[in-house]
Amino acid sequence: MNEGEDTADGTEFDYCANCGAELGTDEWQPISTRESESGALSFDAFCDESCRDSYTRALDAEE
Ligand SMILES: [Zn+2]
Fold this sequence. Notes:
The protein is of the alpha+beta class. Helix content is 21%, strand content 16%. The protein has one domain (12-63). The chain has a two-stranded antiparallel sheet with strand order 1-2. The structure holds zinc ion. Zinc ion (ZN) binds at residues 16, 18-19, 21, 46-47, 51.
């Protein structure tokens, strides 16, 4: 298999930020953005919405 596709903006996600599952490049993934203290945006991708929810909930709980 040789897919050789590049994303236009150079942002791509290989693993779920919550559980570490490998993400398929041909499937839609929920993405979440968050702003660091310095104001830089970072992006996280997840294998499904429940993973995204538990991840963002854990971030909220840290505050
Ligand atoms: Zn996950």
